[in-house]
Design goal:
- The chain is α/β, with parallel strands linked by helices and 315 residues long.
- It folds into 2 domains: 3-168, Rossmann fold, CATH 3.40.50; 171-307, Hypothetical Protein Tm841, Chain: A,domain 3.
- The protein has helices at residues 15-20, 43-57, 68-82, 98-119, 138-152, 157-168, 180-189, 197-206, 228-244, 270-279, 291-297, and strands spanning 3-8, 24-26, 28-32, 35-39, 61-65, 85-90, 127-132, 171-176, 208-215, 218-226, 252-257, 283-288, 302-307.
- It has a 6-stranded mixed sheet, sandwiched between helices. It has a 4-stranded parallel sheet with strand order 2-1-6-7, sandwiched between helices.
- Helix 3 crosses helix 4 (98-119), helix 5 (138-152) runs antiparallel to helix 6 (157-168) and helix 9 packs parallel to helix 10.
- The N and C termini lie far apart (48 Å).
- The relative contact order is 0.16.
C-alpha cells in the first residue's frame, strides 16, 4: 500500500526533507494588496517574500486558507492517483480553518475518487484521514516528520493515524518573535488584545522579547527576556536540557527561522543544542519559516519544537 503524508504550507520542514520523503504540501494563499501569492514552501520564493514584500506590505497582508473545494481539487488531481492512503496533518484548528476545510473536503473526495483512479488505470480503494496537529510551524513539522518515518517503516494506516494523534498531545513548540510592533499590530487586526499597549511600550523600551509556547492547541507566553538573542538562547537552552534529560522522545527537533535558516547556526545556544542532539540520537532540522507564518509573526522570528515531556520553562 502506498501511504502518503500531506501537510499544509505552514509546516516548517526543510525542502530537502520534503522532497526526499515525498511529503505533499497543501498550498495557502496570501493576499498582498491587489496581489495574490501562493505559499507552497518554495525556499527561494519564501526568502524573496521576506526581503521584498514583508517589510513593505506585511501589515496589510492576509492569509487565505484553501477552501474545502480547493482541497478537493488538489486531491482529485494527483493525490488519489499517487497514494492509496493519505494522512493529512494541519496546523492547529484553534489558529486556522484548514483542519475544518480539509475534513469537509475528505467526504467529497472519498465519494468522488473512484472514476479518477479508474481513468488512471489504478484499482483498489483510496482512503484518507485528517489529523489536527494541535501545534503550528515547527511543531507541525515534528509531527509530519515523525508520521513520514512511521509510514516508511511499514506501519498500517489505522495504527499510523492513532500513533500520530497520540503524539500530537506531546508536541511542545516554542517561538521568539523579533518584532513586537509587528506582532501587536497583526493581533489587533484580528481582534486579539493579548499584546496590549503597555506590554508593547515597556517591551519596546527595554527590548524585552516574549518566549511563546504552543501546546495542545493553546499558545501563551512562558517567559519575557531582555534582548532577542538572549531570549533565543534561553529557548534553545530549555530544549537542550530536555534532550539531555531524556525529555525529548521524537526523533526530530525542528527549528524554523523567519529568514535564511543558516543564520540559526551562529545563534547563541544552537551549537550546544546540536551537540546534545548528536549525542542523544536526535536529528535537528533547520528550515525557513513559511511565508504564511511570517504574515502573522513577522520576519526574524525563531521557533523550535519537539515531542516529549511538557515541563515548566526554565527561569
Amino acid at each position: 500500500m502506498r501511504i502518503g503524508v500531506v501537510a499544509d504550507a505552514t509546516c516548517d520542514l526543510p525542502q530537502e526533507f520534503i522532497q526526499q520523503h515525498g511529503i505533499r504540501i497543501l498550498p495557502i494563499s496570501i493576499r498582498l494588496g491587489d496581489e495574490m501569492l501562493v505559499d507552497e514552501r518554495d525556499p527561494e520564493l519564501t526568502l524573496r517574500f521576506y526581503t521584498e514584500s514583508l517589510a513593505s506590505k506585511g501589515l496589510d497582508a492576509e492569509t487565505v486558507p484553501y477552501s474545502a473545494e480547493q482541497i478537493r481539487a488538489v486531491f482529485l488531481e494527483r493525490v488519489v492517483i499517487d497514494q492509496d492512503f493519505a494522512l493529512v496533518l494541519t496546523v492547529s484548528s484553534t489558529r486556522s480553518p484548514i483542519f475544518e476545510n480539509a475534513t469537509k473536503a475528505s467526504f467529497s473526495i472519498l465519494n468522488d475518487y473512484k472514476p479518477v483512479r479508474a481513468a488512471a488505470g489504478i484499482s483498489g480503494p483510496f482512503a484518507m484521514r485528517v489529523v489536527d496537529s494541535k501545534s503550528l510551524f515547527s511543531g507541525t513539522a515534528v509531527l509530519v516528520a515523525e508520521a513520514r518515518m512511521l509510514a516508511e517503516e511499514g506501519i498500517a494506516p489505522n495504527e499510523l493515524r492513532r500513533r500520530v494523534e497520540d503524539l500530537s498531545e506531546s508536541v511542545c513548540a516554542y517561538m521568539v518573535p523579533k518584532d513586537l510592533y509587528y506582532v501587536r499590530n497583526r493581533a489587533m487586526k484580528k481582534g486579539d488584545n493579548s499584546v496590549g499597549w503597555m506590554t508593547y511600550a515597556v517591551g519596546t523600551a527595554l527590548d524585552i522579547k516574549p518566549v511563546l509556547h504552543a501546546w495542545r492547541g493553546e499558545t501563551r507566553p512562558v517567559a519575557k527576556v531582555r534582548h532577542f538573542e538572549a531570549a533565543v538562547e534561553r529557548m534553545f537552552g530549555h530544549v537542550t536540557r530536555q534532550i539531555l534529560t531524556g525529555g525529548v522522545r521524537s526523533r526530530y527537533v525542528c527549528i524554523c527561522h523567519g529568514g535564511d535558516p543558516d543564520a540559526v547556526l551562529s545563534m547563541p545556544g544552537y551549537e550546544a543544542l546540536a551537540e546534545a542532539g548528536r549525542q542523544n540520537g536526535r536529528t535537528v532540522l533547520r528550515s525557513i519559516m513559511s511565508a504564511t507564518a511570517a504574515v502573522n509573526v513577522g520576519g526574524g522570528c525563531v521557533g523550535i519544537a519537539f515531542a516529549g515531556d511538557h515541563v515548566p520553562f526554565a527561569s
